[in-house]
Amino acid sequence: MQNPSAHESTGLQSQPPPEEQNYGATEAHERQGPFVSVSRNRPAKRGYLTVGVLCYANLINFMDWFIVPGESLFPLSKEKENSRQFYLFLTFILCYMVAAPFFGYLGDRYNRKIILGAGIFFWSAVTLGTSFISESYHWMFFLSRGLVGIGTASYSTVAPTIIADQFDEGKRTTMLSVFYICIPVGSGLGYVLASSMANVTGDWHWAFRVSYSLSLMGLSLAAEKPGVQRSAKTTWWQDVISLGKNCSFVWSTLGLTAMAFVTGALGMWVPMFLYRAQVVQGTVSPCAEKSCNSSNSLIFGGITIGTGILGVVAGAEAARRLRKINNRGDPLICATSMFVSALCLFIALMMAQRSITSTFIFIALGELFLSANWAVVTDILLYVVTPRRQSTAIALQILVSHLLGDAGSPYLVGAVSEFSWSFRSLQYSFIICVFVGVIGGGFFLLTSFYVEDDRKEAEKKGQITIPPYGRKSCVLTFLDAFDCESKIAAELAYGSPPSICKTGMSILWSWGAPEGRV
């Protein structure tokens, strides 16, 4: 009869089989640390239902964001139109990015379902209150935008980690792509809703009332059972220091910041830019009304929806295929998308004075390649950062990308264009976005130099620790015998071994083994 400990020694120290050694999305959560207690036996439909609810809430969230740039809400003098409209957006972004680190800390340590549900309820209630603010109390509207930003921060920091816990391997990339499709789609719907409600009812308040009604459905998440309870053992400052040493996280965050810079400027000023281009071409007449670009907002919203869906899906699929032949495929996809997007935006700016149709086409192409990066950037974060720091990492990424990105880009573009209320001034100000897009592509190229080493380091820190001498343990590694990219979930259990071993399950027993790792 063989000695159990001898058998165990060879099993525990052996390297994983070739089919387990995948990259990118297939590696992100194969080994969870002792801080995770999660069962992967949950019904698959529950995971898909959770993702569906998260996607719906994300859609309504971004739709609410872009109601403001989709329609001028208060009478503004033409001379101050650019900067004043931006202040509402700035108020939201500042509160959003300041609150994000706090909720990231909570998300790594407490029940994320409660954090998520409370956040959705809070910003939904504030949105409803916004719809009753009269124009004479515009300062209250600024306050409400800030409160919505706080509620949104609680949602945005934990939702991607919930998706990561529900799915492993390539399925996570697919689910993240579906989740991030809601960003451009929700943004486009915000433009459409703002313009439609203003035209149909003559009152912009109804756009927020409709948004509130739709957001109530997102509260159905409260009925979903929490799947993962995290309990990080480090302080927030230790997490920040560790993330600062993660080169892939740092460079990809700066690349995302460049994306946010360009996206924020485009979302705020493209409808106005298109209107001014049409005035220069003589296709429309200058107007003195407070909103002269409703049709452009509607068209731009439709472009944002279409290119967003196609871009996110295409980017995720391209990354999935490229990582099979190149372990650095994800950041290379992001870099290429940024370079091509910057080129398309530059061509659109140069063509605007001569052909509005060509301008629409190249703006659409620019947004298409920008949208290709949303899911891929998050996927990079999820496999180069250990699970116990992921909510904090997402929160810091939100803080940096908004602080240096879309919190300032709309103001900068608007400030440059205000030197002269003309098409040419806004055209020149958009050139800034072209340069930032190229710089963002460079950041993603730098990410590609570090992504492999950081991924391996994250895997090492996320491995399961075998208990010290004198304790019996059982490590169950669930292997799908028919899938070369099998899902691996490991649970540490104490007590007597089970009497039944099912097909497709590899069981490793430890009888008083020294402390080691699987």
TrEMBL record:
Alphabetic keyword roster: Membrane, Transmembrane, Transmembrane helix, Transport
SUPFAM superfamilies xref list: MFS general substrate transporter
Protein name, as recorded: SPNS lysolipid transporter 3, sphingosine-1-phosphate (putative)
Domain Major facilitator superfamily (MFS) profile: 50-452
Major localization class: membrane
Organism superkingdom: Eukaryota
Topology versus the membrane: Multi-pass membrane protein
Cell compartments where the protein resides: Membrane
Any one Gene Ontology cellular component term annotated for this protein: membrane
Compositionally skewed regions (Polar residues) per UniProt: 1-14
Family: Belongs to the major facilitator superfamily. Spinster (TC 2.A.1.49) family.
Keyword Membrane: yes
Family matches, as InterPro entries: MFS (IPR011701), MFS_dom (IPR020846), MFS_spinster-like (IPR044770), MFS_trans_sf (IPR036259)
The keyword Lipid metabolism is assigned to this record: no
Pfam families: MFS_1
Chain ranges passing through the membrane: 47-67, 87-107, 114-133, 139-163, 175-194, 206-223, 249-270, 298-319, 331-352, 358-382, 394-416, 428-451
An MF annotation (GO) of this entry: transmembrane transporter activity
Region (Disordered) location: 1-33
